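Bench notes, afternoon.
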Amino acid sequence: MLSLNLPSAPLKIADVSGKKQVFDILRKKYVALTPEEWVRQHFVHYLITHRGYPSGLLANEVSIKLNSTSRRCDTVLYSPSLSPRMIVEYKAPDVNISQQVFNQITRYNIVLKVDYLILTNGITHYCCKVDYNSGRCTFLPSVPLYTDL
């Protein structure tokens, strides 16, 4: 897999029936090791280990209903009262973070109404804070520490 613009992570990788799988520490199971999953696992480790996010408040593959269709948010951070606070959308390292990707995460946010949106392909990371009063997103210079949310 490609090198990412993230700290290394102690990922557990297994070969199951000739296919690589990685252990997802949030779902507590092995999942197919795709390029997007490689980014997800590194980013989740980054949030927990380097930004202080509690693993118990993070969830991967969160199902939502959007206009009567089922969608899945890649990762959602919840508050201690279990209201959604952040959506993280992952792309494979060779996928550019485009307006289309921003549109995807903002559609998810119509349902969840979170305070923070993060988009990453493991190389480039965007984090913005949503201001519902002005209807604007402010891009942050980096992913905030959990204690600064």
